[in-house]
Specification:
Largest sheet: 5 strands, antiparallel
Helix content: under 10%
Strand content: over 45%
Number of helices: 0
Radius of gyration: 21 Å
Number of strands: 8
Structural class: mainly beta
CATH architecture: Sandwich
CATH superfamily: Immunoglobulins
CATH topology: Immunoglobulin-like
Shape: elongated
Distance between the termini: 78 Å
Length: 114
């Protein structure tokens, strides 16, 4: 079984100092792949693995502003016990890259002539 393709990260929003990033999963190429396992590590601390079905295309991860995040994605097939693919690893830093909302419309009123 091959490695999963690249992981895509889109930082969606932030709330105070917590950044939310959308992780896009690569297309599954092996027909017998049944599950996708994602391990999220923030500042060196691993969270419990998250397991997704083969039809899931993305998920959200959250981390503190400025923290480093390491994502490890592995595909599992339908064998018993499942065979595991080589992992695909992606690292990034949670950064506030979301600009403020666009201002409302400017109002212009003609006040006279000179």
């Amino acid at each position: 079984m091959l490695k999963p393709g690249p992981l895509y990260i889109f930082q969606e929003s932030y709330m105070a100092d917590l950044i939310i990033a959308r992780v896009g999963f690569p297309q599954i190429v092996d027909v017998d792949t049944e599950l996708q396992e994602l391990v999220v590590e923030i500042d060196g601390v691993s969270q419990d693995p998250q397991v997704f079905g083969k039809d899931v295309t993305s998920t959200a991860v959250k981390g503190p502003q400025g923290s480093s995040c390491k994502l490890t994605l592995t595909h599992l097939d339908d064998a018993t016990p499942p065979n595991r693919s080589a992992p695909r690893v992606r690292e990034f830093v949670f950064q506030d890259i979301v600009p403020p909302a666009q201002p409302g419309e400017l109002e212009v009123t003609i006040e006279g002539e000179e």
